[in-house]
Amino acid sequence: MKNFKFRSVRNAALGCMAALPLITTAVAETSPSVEPATTDRPNIVLIYGDDLGAGLLGAYGQKIIKTPNIDRLAAEGMIFNNAHGCVYCAPARASMITGLHDSHRNAWSIVKGGLLVEKDMGKMSEQEMQRQLARAIPAKPNEVFLAQVAKNAGYTTAQFGKLDWGFTTTHDRLVRHGWDYYFGYYDHVRAHGFYPTYLWKNGEKVMLPGNTHHNAGKTYEGGYDKKEATEVRRDKTGKVHYSQNVLIKDLLQYLDDHKDQRFFLYHPTQIPHGPVDVPGVHPDFVNDNRLTDVQKEYASMVKLLDDHVGLIMARLKKLGLDDKTMIAFTSDNGHALYYIHNKLRSQQRSYHGELDVFKGSLDLAGMKWTNWQGGIRVPLIVRWPGKVKAGSQTDRLTAAYDYMPTFADVMGTEAPKGKDGSSFYPTLLGKEQPKRGPIIVHQAVVADGWKLVRDEEQKDKEVYLLFNLKDDPGERHDLAAKHPEKFQQLMTIFQREVGSPRKDL
What we know:
This protein is of the alpha/beta class. The chain contains 14 helices and 14 strands.
């Protein structure tokens, strides 16, 4: 094995940021008429973890990985115990950005990933790439996206990280979706590596000298704890600039440059999506004998995300924006295993975290890629000083598409008509509000503690199961036969919504 000297992830983050060369690119101009934030119409920072199970955070019970900065958001804000994303990243992001549930017919399309990687390697022509991109359903003239809601409310908008909903996006698409400024990956397949040769800023390439891998240095997808896999991860040849450190540096500079403008900032990170890769093992885990090498590195990825949340919080405070900014922290889908050899069992309803040393799925059934609760339950924490009660919790049911109407309320503007979301703004303020109606997440209906779900493990049959999530959060006991009326009630909703046309156009 090559000699690999581990550094503290905290120090590595700051060191790589300082070492990043100054590269100038075209910067999107925002209107000078944008006013500063106030306590009543705050800045909004949305931090969006990638494959981050709620159980990885101290605020939700994590014991091995300490996440003091994210836990501080919870201690000074509100924890949601019944928040949902989607079964994997692309529909979750599309649902949030469009304000629609993920089961409409032809609401959006997902472009193939890896197009830019193939083009850069000479395996695909520019013409073929454009042909593939053209397959996406184009935005309708009257279609409204999340960032446009913010712009309509007088906010300047910015996005940093794993851009758009993938798997490949473009400058024109990002501008159409309402982003004044962006920096990150166009290609979600390339975003499975952390050392890209370049990133995109407002339509122009920002080269990262010393990064030489077209696939961004992607390591083994399974995160296998074999000697050769560990050696590949720790070989930093052609890996100078770690993407998350590059992104956070630009994000912090954006805060400095826009401190006098009310902003909506969206930070969809790559962390802790695998394959596992991190500049070094955090000191917390170097001598932790409970963990294998790859588990130590995975835990360090979560720790790095927490460090970056701390950097954002500290910069807001330094700029005098702390009490004028609402921070929402969440994730796209349930937990995923990138640090064990055989993870197939985790896709089954019978799996309840038995393989996971970190218990990232909170021992719910299944994990990412499934419509079991372990695949769609996500963390959600909201901190808004002076508005959201510190240390509060709620069991209110939420979905990815609820952010659009909620943020519209916070921003003091109207939400677009015909969207599917339900604002949880009154809940944030500690006010009474009616229970959330049913949510729709990929072949599942969740409503008032009950869940109707298509059993996708029985691929050749159309089988539906009914669970009482209050009594049986692990979805172990199908109650369809015992509660036919409840089954039929939710089935009626399922048949009405799944495959239905969108209502906002």
